[in-house]
Amino acid sequence: MTTTHKTRALIVVTCLSLMFTALGGRLVQLHVLRHDELSSQAAANRGQVVQRQGRRGEIRDCNGNLLANSQSVRIVCADPSITTSNAGVVAAKLSPLLKMDVAVLQAKLTGPGQYVRLKQKVDEETAQQIRSLKLKGILFEDQYLRTYPHGTLASHYIGFVDSDHKGVQGIESAMNQYLEGVSGYEVIERDRKGREIRALRTEGIEPRDGYHVVLTLDQVIQHVAETELEKAMSEFHPQAGVIIVSRPKTGEILAMSCRPTFDLNNAGAALADARRNRCISDVAEPGSTFKIVVCSGAMNERIVTLQDRFDCHNGAFLYAGRILHDAHPYGILPVEGILYKSSNIGAAVVGLKMGAPRLYEYIRRYGFGRKTGIGLPGEVSGIAHPLASWSSLSITRIPMGHEIAATPIQMIMAMNAISNGGKLMKPIVVKRVVDDAGRVILENVPQQVGQPISPATTAMMTTALRRVTTAEGTAPKAAVEGYDTAGKTGTAQKIEGGQYVRKYYSSFIGYLPASDPELSILVSLDDPSGGAYYGGSVSGPVFRRVAEKVVEYLGMPPQKPVTNSKQMASVR
Q: pTM of the full predicted structure?
């Protein structure tokens, strides 16, 4: 018996020794040999790197009014390693708050890994309701929601952001590097219920909020342009329309309105056609507004003067086997009359006297055929065919605005040069970029990019363009009572399938006060209906209504027009 007890005791001792030896070996393996590996795994199980998004900068108008903002919201997340065991209950409680299907939520709550996003852009009130449920494994992250307080106002100018808060169009895209800021992160530790252990929070990198972009746009003037364009759309039912308001002396864009339009707060629901900024991306033959180029160029070269008279062939001019017509038959007209009565034949005759090489030189001087550099995505160059591509008819068709295509922004900048002593300015849409403290990070100043004509030539052009808005001109309905107004009409036939059709672009571009311009305004409507389509009849009144409201808002005092004789004396 004694031997038997000793044997059993030995077996027990041996087994215990082996067990403790194995346990010791396992402990050595875990705490010594695999210490680094297992420590990393443990830290990964408890710890989490949380990205911290910097707040996207604001977009403001020139007076500091808010046009785009980022509001703080939440991302609702879950740790499936915790929520899997109770996924059905958790999904049922979250479903009405997150407005998500229970089955979809349950699938996310039982998925692989330790992190899943349940829903983004959850407002703070809903987040608080979820917190009050005290659900294990439900987490929250900070997020920002981009909002636009005025909906459709200046939508093409401002642009919008995508789901990743990156700028897609307009200023949001062009200034994204300043607006988006810099993301940061921090490493946190959570307990087995998914709650953060704040005492164990480790250092990270603080995010930097984005800078604020201050535009040249004036919210009030933009509202005026939007309202008047909407009225024009209702009255004339064109396919599309644009209005641009600028400061001729600086190139600052005060308003830029397009129709059709869209709501910036729901940009994804809009058609691509409605989101296109037609002021910079649409090209068309400018029609008679382009006569400012040939007439100013010929006067600048001293080939003609305002008083030089030309035969307009009573409305029918045969050249290179084709007849060119005027809207009304004219006989002998001075260059001044060619402009304010808008004679196609007169412009063609001036072009012939000027010659193709010099005409092409002025087309390029005014910036046609290249981008203005406005700094908004989507700008196109327009079409200015090289001399080698001109036909025998081109020298008579281009002066009247055919065989060339321009964007609205190109046309208003060309007119600005005529109003501003011949200085071709670069259009400006961003005034400055500032940080939260108001320190200036970037500032844009007026930039002259060319001098197509002399100040003396611009004075002569203004003399003629003043008469456009009188009873003898093509746009008496564009005259602004009490203000010295100058401008030019345009009525260009549209081309469809390579052929001219009975559809028109109706335009008016003007500036005031003519002797010292503070404002220039372009109005263009694409294919107005109802019988009226001449630029003076359709776009002229829209120009007047915009101008009347803007001069009142800016407090511009009335100014009597300068007489033709005085104006002529000043340039001789």
A: 0.83
Who has greater pLDDT, 200 or 571?
Answer: 200
Higher pLDDT, 203 or 355: 355
Do 461 and 296 meet the contact criterion of CB atoms below 8 Å apart? yes
Domain count along the chain: 2
Domain boundary among 215, 231, 249: 215
3-state secondary structure 409-475: HHHHHHHHHHHCCCCEECCECEEEEECCCCCEEEECCCCEEECCCCHHHHHHHHHHHHHHHCCCCCC
Rg over alpha carbons for the chain, rounded to the nearest Å, is 35
Same domain, residue pair 270 and 187: no
Q: Could you count the other beta carbons within 10 Å of the beta carbon of residue 10?
A: 10
Amino acid letter, residue 157: Y
d(CA 288, CA 344): 8
Query: For the segment 234-291, what is each residue's pLDDT rounded down to a tens digit?
Result: 999 999 999 999 999 999 999 999 999 999 999 999 999 999 999 999 999 999 999 9
Helices (H), 51-175: 80-83, 87-98, 102-109, 124-132, 155-158, 170-174
Instruction: Specify whether 186 is located in the same domain as 275.
Output: no
How many alpha carbons fall within 13 Å on the CB side of residue 366?
A: 30
pLDDT on residue 528? 94
Range of the domain at 298: 219-571
pLDDT band at residue 104 under the 50/70/90 scheme:
very high
Q: How far apart are the C-alpha atoms of 292 and 50, rounded to whole Å?
A: 61
Q: 491 and 322 in contact (C-beta within 8 Å)?
A: no
SS3 labels along 5-21: HHHHHHHHHHHHHHHHH
Q: Measured between alpha carbons, how far is 47 from 93 in angstroms, rounded to an integer? A: 27
Please state whether beta strands 66-78 and 116-122 pair in parallel, antiparallel, or not at all (unpaired). Answer: antiparallel
The total number of residues written for the chain in this structure: 572
d(C-alpha 515, C-alpha 566), whole Å: 12
Reported as a single tens digit per residue, the pLDDT across 494-544 is 888 888 888 889 999 999 999 999 999 999 999 998 778 899 999 999 999
494 and 385 within one domain:
yes
Alpha-carbon distance of 557 to 30, in angstroms, equals 87
Contact 52, 181 (CB under 8 A): no
Q: Which two tokens stand for residue 381?
A: 């160059």
The DSSP-derived string for 298-351 is HHHTTS--TT-EEE-GGGEEEETTEEEE-SS---EEEHHHHHHTT-HHHHHHHH
Angstrom CA distances, 533 to 65, 478, 529, stand at: 37, 15, 7
Please check whether residue 53 lies inside any domain of the structure: yes
